[in-house]
TrEMBL record:
InterPro entries, per database record: DNA_methylase_N6_adenine_CS, HemK-like, N5-glutamine_MTase, SAM-dependent_MTases_sf, Small_mtfrase_dom
SUPFAM superfamilies found in the cross-reference section: S-adenosyl-L-methionine-dependent methyltransferases
Record keyword S-adenosyl-L-methionine present: yes
Span of domain Methyltransferase small: 52-136
EC number(s) per entry: 2.1.1.297
Xref: PROSITE patterns: N6_MTASE (PS00092)
Keyword tags: Methyltransferase, S-adenosyl-L-methionine, Transferase
Protein's UniProt keywords contain Zinc: no
Protein name: peptide chain release factor N(5)-glutamine methyltransferase
Enzyme category, top tier: transferase
GO biological process, one term: methylation
Length: 227
């Protein structure tokens, strides 16, 4: 990451999957492991026809949605996040990269951000990097994370999986049959994630992508065809 001067302000720039992003003080800095998720998302869309529809949930700076829109020509991306700061930064990045014709950023509580857009049952891929550190760990051994980045980017509730539970449940209504759900999670959470996906009774058995240490870090689940 580097800092440049612009209009009297310091603007932080960061590269993610070859894309230069603007960041802000209240926005998560994309981590290297999130590129595992980004590459998985691009790979999943390789088999989709032109005009794939993608939701980028908990979008932060917009890094995942922007990577998909850049690397999958014709993909239409709807991104969303909860806070004013993240949505503003994501929208600036969409403008900087000239992707406003294929990518939009909404503000709201998870899928509630898309109320009225008639996306139900039409989406090929939901991709998400949700917060996954437990509240207790953020108050203790991982408290240093809050020195320069927002709590909302890390706090996953009592067990670190509160957002995952809602994501897995609510994505079902938006995915078309055969559509994909792909999301990041923390080290050691793979068993709980597999149980959450199985409990939804809407997906094929979950598969995992691993990091350099061969630890599962990304879950990939395909929505079943009810027919």
């Amino acid at each position: 990451m580097h800092i440049v001067k612009g209009d009297g302000d310091n603007i932080r720039l960061h590269r993610f999957m070859g894309i230069e992003l603007e960041l802000g003080p209240d926005v998560l800095v994309p981590r290297e492991e999130t590129e595992i998720l980004g590459n998985a998302a691009v790979g999943l869309l390789g088999g989709c026809a032109a005009g794939a529809r993608v939701i980028d949930m908990c979008c932060g700076s917009g890094n995942l949605g922007l990577a998909v829109a850049t690397k999958v020509p014709g993909a239409q991306v709807w991104s969303a996040d909860l806070t004013d700061a993240t949505v503003a930064v994501a929208r600036r990045n969409v403008d900087r990269l000239g992707l406003g014709d294929r990518m939009s950023v909404a503000q709201g509580d998870l899928f509630g951000a898309f109320d009225g857009l008639n996306l139900a049952g039409t989406v090929d891929l939901v991709v998400c990097n949700p917060p996954y550190i437990s509240s207790a760990r953020l108050e203790g051994e991982r408290s240093e994370l809050l020195a320069s980045e927002p709590r909302e980017a890390f706090d996953g509730g009592p067990y670190g999986l509160s957002i995952h539970q809602r994501l897995i449940r609510d994505a079902v209504a938006f995915l078309k049959p055969g559509g994909w759900l792909a999301f990041e999670f923390g080290e050691g959470q793979d068993r709980q994630v597999a149980a959450l996906v199985a409990r939804a009774r809407a997906y094929a058995p979950v598969e995992f992508a691993t990091d350099a240490a061969r630890l599962p870090r990304v879950a990939i689940a395909r929505k079943l065809d009810p027919a």
